[in-house]
Amino acid sequence: INITRARFSGTDEFGYTSFVAYTSIPSLSFFYEFKLRFTLANISSAVRDNLILFAGQKGQGNDGDDFLVLGLRSGRVVHRFNLGSGIATIVSDRLNYNISIHTVTFGRSKRTGWLKVDGQRNRTGYSPGPLVGLNVFNQVFVGGYNEFTPELLPLGSRFRQGFQGCIFSIQFRTRKDGKFQALGQPAGYPAFGRSVGQCGVTPCVHVRCMNGGTCVDSGSSVYCQCLSGWKGALCTETVSVCDPEHSPPPLCSHGSTCIPLPNGYTCQCPLGTAGLHCEKAVTITDPFFSSNKSSWMSFPPMSIRHRTVVELQFQPLSPDGILVYSAQHLGARAGDFFCLSLTSGFVQLRYNLGGGTHVLRSTQTVDLHGRTWHVVKAGRTGHQGFLSLDNEEVRENRTERMTTLDVATDIFVGGVSTLSFVSPEATEREPMSFTGGLRELKINGRELELTETGAIGGTNIGDWDGTACGYKVCHNGGQCRATGADSFICICPSLWTGSLCNQSVSCVNNNCRHGSICTPSTVTSYSCICPLGWGGTHCDTKVSTDSFRFVGNSHIKYRDQRFNTRNLKYTQISFSVYASSSDGLIVWMGNAEHEDEDYLAVGLEEGNLKIAVNLGERLALPITFKNLTLCCRKWHDVSLNLNRTVIQVFLNNKEILFEDSDPFERYVALNFGGVVYFGGFEIYRNVSVVTSGIFSKGFEGSIRNVFLFGDGNQVLFLKKGEGFNVFEGIES
């Protein structure tokens, strides 16, 4: 729009005023005089409390904020200014509305100000106090102000609305004998502005509102005000039953999602809510899914790249539905995917590693009458898949070059957030949500918490029996009895007590010290599992030793204090070991949190030394030395050097391995995170699960003389390590 006569729309529906800003006038201090002309757009609202022109300091709420302002209030023109010692106010007579174009001249010389409007007599006023100079260095605003609220203007200069109409022919001078000139640099050009149109021109002539809509001119922009039942930029879209504009509005509770149907709508309830309009709170202990409601839950992505093992109990009420799903992408081009589902009453496992879809199906169908909790264990190691339903196993005999599952989506349970985004190859028929109950879901040994707080997302999930009792609410065989909608009690077996049957009767009032763990021995006795550095019956005796004995459920976790300065392309570890059993993990260098993390591991398998290393992608297979037995209950010295991809192993100072695990050197550094485990992992972690089956259990025997990276001093476990159930080792 070419603007020669600015048209202002006042304050828009969002509370912003239209305005034009000009560069500051530096010489306003002792004298100024302005001339301008204006027309009014709407007599009733344009003369109530409207800003015409303002220059001044941004308001701080103080009386000393210098400013000059011109505005309309109650049908009169008002000229005000403040030189720092008080406000001068000059008010005209009421405007003659028969005059279409109004002319205003106003100014100030030191403390004296004046105002002349149309043919009215000239009016004057005086600023209180001794100050005679105006300190204003900001822009001159016409028609409005760029701040959201008038409260940001100085006291005395505040008008509640912007101007409504046209302001033009603005001129000013800063000397009594000076010539009038236009605002701006160059003259007549504003610096910036908002929502300003051209006087006498409305963009509505170019806009055709449909279906009875009315074009509303808002300065430089327009919009269509639609009749009831219509919406959109041009009122061409019908209002959906789920739109807030609909009459009556949808009743779905806050946080739920309204979904339009051919005859009304339905509410998709977020986790923890239920009911027709999601108005009821629900506690989920064993989730209930419904295909009719497109139910689903989701959990964060997990590391299932090399190995995926899903263990699940379910009770179906419908022959079809997704149990577990994860993919590389959500969409028709999903890439790699893993899907466990029901198809015509059979359990089906489908997965794609990039070389085609693998399909395994159970030999038997499931009970669909809600009488049986079925147990399924399904998954794949590399490309080899397996499926077991109620201990009847099916395995796949198929070779494929691809061995890794690259998925990045959440892990979906019972359905998927958008069923149309499921890979077409993931299900035999159209994908649908599961109908029935689920409980005890484990993925790679890690149990997922199937509750409204354990999942990160979900829709339309109920509780299987509608009570606070769930499959594992009461521990150790305790029986759950509901005592109300959200309460329960556990009936504990004789050896257990506590509100959840998670306290051994033997351990009540135990004397285990220093953070040790009480474990029952018999009905009336207990033992204490001591933290590293403590021993004795009640873990009240300090242990000082350089040799440490492990008993199969022991571990030491050592954090390398010099990790940040290590050269991770060259790793060295040496130690002495005394084995008491033929299998077990001796050392694991690595965080051991996700299966894809780097590691260097040493252990025993059937009495033979076993070495495993992963610098990335598990390119090298574990090595077992079949002809080297660490037997006879005696000490052996083991040393490993990893130079980029070349691994060198010494046993009792004799080299037994020198091998390049990856001549292409795709990965050359051991990013072990500064963590080294000895003997096993934390008590609640299964060695076979953490190591993906490389080692079956924890170490039984003794370890001493541990050195890392060729350091001159051996590792001081008692000072810088942590662990449990470690005893003073064998010295001889």
UniProtKB/TrEMBL annotation:
Its protein name is: EYS protein
Residues annotated as domain EGF-like? 200-236, 238-279, 465-502, 503-540
Any single biological process term in GO:
developmental growth
Indicate the segments forming the Laminin G domain, all copies: 9-199, 286-469, 545-732
**What molecular functions are annotated in GO for this chain?**
calcium ion binding
The intrachain disulfides are C226-C235, C269-C278, C492-C501, C530-C539
Example GO CC term: the record gives: basement membrane
Q: What Pfam families does UniProt report for this protein, alphabetically? A: EGF, hEGF, Laminin_G_2
Q: Which Gene3D superfamilies match?
A: 2.60.120.200, Laminin (2.10.25.10)
Give the UniProt keywords, A-Z: Calcium, Disulfide bond, EGF-like domain, Glycoprotein, Repeat, Signal
**What SUPFAM superfamilies does the database record attribute to this sequence?**
Concanavalin A-like lectins/glucanases, EGF/Laminin
